[in-house]
Design goal:
This protein is mainly α. It is built from 1 helix and 2 strands; from the N terminus they run ββα.
Length: about 70
């Protein structure tokens, strides 16, 4: 019979699912997937912001005089 101390729960305070015996992670699979998706979305946002800032910097440095038809 299992002791109460042997039962592990997901560390997400909103989730608290019981984790299977021998499960090596602190969060359940659903919470881990949500965290991974959030991280991907943040990185996409940072990348988009960096590209925008780089294009604005190029326009400012060149004074807007880039003419690709030359």
């Amino acid at each position: 019979m299992k002791n109460k101390s042997d039962v592990r729960f997901c560390k997400n305070k909103k989730c608290q699912k019981v984790l299977p015996e021998g499960y090596k992670h602190r969060y359940c699979e659903a919470c881990r997937n949500k965290q991974a998706q959030t991280a991907k979305n943040v990185l996409k946002g940072i990348g988009t912001g960096a590209v925008t800032a780089a294009s604005i910097a190029v326009v400012v440095v060149t004074g807007g005089k880039i003419n690709p038809k030359k």
